[in-house]
């Protein structure tokens, strides 16, 4: 039996079995391929345009392989994804990504990375249908058409064309698709005993479902993000506090204020007892959180509901000072809060009133304009631009404005403090964690307007583009050759 005939019989048998089992026939498949691509290929078969059958079938197979690879980068555990990216880098010689791979390169990528083995282990699906079919022969046939056409003694035979077409049908039947992307995604969602959700296996696809609000600190995912944020900025804040305390001559019995304290987690980390604080007040506009922490004993830490943008702010602060028996504050701390406000300078002016002469105001934030990435093909810039265009977005370029704001409200003694963070010494898991910290919340910028108007075409398009771009960027982040850095900025202003 010839090699070609063997493949034909093997594949046709597999195709017949999958159709009997699933009840999906050729006609049913043809109806769900966009642009009637299968009908077109079938027509080529009937007209004996066998080289066109091969080319068109391989084009669809190429699309399938790319979608599977993309989904694998989103769903598989970190170690597997890292292996995929290493294989991609070697096949692409570090110059191009899988999105620019041809059919042969994609097959080589699947072989080199053992993607089907990894997928099978992840889903507990042995993938007998497609694992038993080698694409290497089809690659050879496709290469003949592409590269060696002038030396061919005869055109592609009917048996060879049928081989390729039946292989395509088996792949399509396996993913059980109605829409190709949906089919591939569903195939990866099968339950697994080998890949239970864990921190190591967490992907953007899973995390994004857990995000409810980028601003509501009472939401568990946001509170977890704030804790990570506190860890990243711990050393930076320590330097700011040390400078402030030095300017205060390390006096004792200090009174502190944390503006935007949430549940007090960061407050109690930053205002260390050994610094000499005898009382620290935290204020926040989240009444639910404040009521919860006020019901507990936090020692020197006292928490109050105060809306920093309300017209009643001054009255509320006067009531707070009277209740706590405080004349003024020695140290004020405000981290990643000002960029949410419509008029940050107005708040800074008001806070200055309650700061003791010689006291210190510490403000911390970031500036998206200081982010550097390579080689992302401009993806980070596109994501940031999309964020900026959203009406509900906070001011992500606020770091550069701190110094002018402070000068405008009367501060002249201002110290700048900077911290640069990059991913060069991080492993894949740490890189992914860093990605989630700096980019997960951005999904809310497109999700909130979509939730209000689900049928709005522009909102749908904006959100779908944001999801797709964040998925792409996450895959880049865990590549060992990808570079990303960002800047944290603080100002310590002395009254």
Describe the structure.
With about 500 residues, the protein is α/β, with parallel strands linked by helices. The protein folds into 2 domains: about 5-195, no CATH class; about 220-495, 3-Layer(aba) Sandwich (Rossmann fold), CATH 3.40.50.150. The protein has 23 helices and 8 strands. The chain has helices at about 5-20, 25-30, 35-45, 50-75, 80-90, 105-115, 115-125, 130, 135-145, 160-175, 180-185, 205-210, 220-230, 235-245, 265-270, 285-295, 315-325, 345-355, 380-390, 400-410, 430-440, 445-450, 455-475; strands at about 255-260, 275-285, 300-305, 330-335, 355-365, 370-375, 415-420, 485-495.
Q: Architecture of the largest domain in CATH?
A: 3-Layer(aba) Sandwich
The computed structural class is: alpha/beta
CATH topology heading of the largest domain: Rossmann fold
**Alpha-carbon distance between the two ends:** 92 Å
- Please report the first level of CATH classification, the CATH class of the largest domain: Alpha Beta
Strand percent estimate? 5-15%
Q: How is the main sheet built? A: 8 strands, mixed
CATH superfamily grouping of the largest domain: Vaccinia Virus protein VP39
Number of strands: 8
- Radius of gyration (Å): 30 Å
The 3D shape can be described as elongated
Could you say how many structural domains there are in total? Answer: 2
In percent, how helical is the residue content?
A: 40-55%
User: Segments where pLDDT lies below 50 for 5+ residues?
Assistant: 1-35, 149-153, 192-218
Average pLDDT score: 81
